[in-house]
Amino acid sequence: MIDHLELDTSTLIQDAGSIREIFNQIKDDLASCLKEIIQPATFLEGNDPKFFNAQSRLAAREAQKNSAAVEGQCIQEILLVKKTIDLLKESPAEINKDLAALNEERTQLLSQLKTVEDVIKQKEEALSQIPASFADQKKNIATLKARLDRIKQDKKAKILGSAKEDQQQIAEVDSIRLLALNSIKSALNM
To answer: What is the DSSP string of 117-152?
Structure first.
């Protein structure tokens, strides 16, 4: 039973059946005071909502502490993506202008045809990638805006009770396990 009671409370809260089985086998041999101390540990599952709700509220509080920084980071990312989108909007005109100049130079300078054609290829490739990149950036900004909305909603969410109360509830449940463990060890002179 000691090995089982030394497990983490979050494990035992889900299944204390092994403790219960051992307790049922030895309960008639235990002193009544030891039996009263150990018996609540055999039914730790009954504290499942209390324990896990308290853990969940603590995690939510921690997330809220960090939400301002995450929100600011998300806003910065949106601004960077917006800047990229603005640059992409201006790029086609510049690339088209470069293409025209390069085509004219190709007809005048046949000796440099190979070099100019390589540059043309690169510029045409860049131009062809803009629509896909533009669409990707639009999707990216929509995703970031949705994320920002979720962050704002999570930031406003009310969390019942206090962190101190939640920590106290977790400590109460854990003390049941520790009391049972220490009582058994004491009874066994360990």
So the answer is: HHHHHHHHHHHHHHHHHHHHHHHHHHHHHHHHHHHH
pTM: 0.43
CA dihedral 75, 77, 82, 88 (to 10 degrees): 180
Domain boundaries, the chain: 2-187
Of all residues in the chain, what percent are helix, strand and coil, respectively (each to 5)? 90, 0, 10
CA dist., res. 91 & res. 87, Å (int): 6
How far from 154 is each of 21, 60, 101, CA to CA, in Å?
A: 43, 9, 54
CA distance 77 to 53: 34
The Cβ-side half-sphere exposure at 86, using a 13 Å CA radius, reads 6
Rounded distance, CA 124 to CA 86, Å? 20
Encoding tokens for residue 47? 């504290």
CA–CA separation, 147 and 74 (whole Å): 8
Residue 112 and residue 122: Cα distance in Å, rounded? 16
Residue type for position 22: I
**Chain segment 91-124, per-residue pLDDT in tens:** 888 888 888 998 888 678 777 778 888 999 998 8
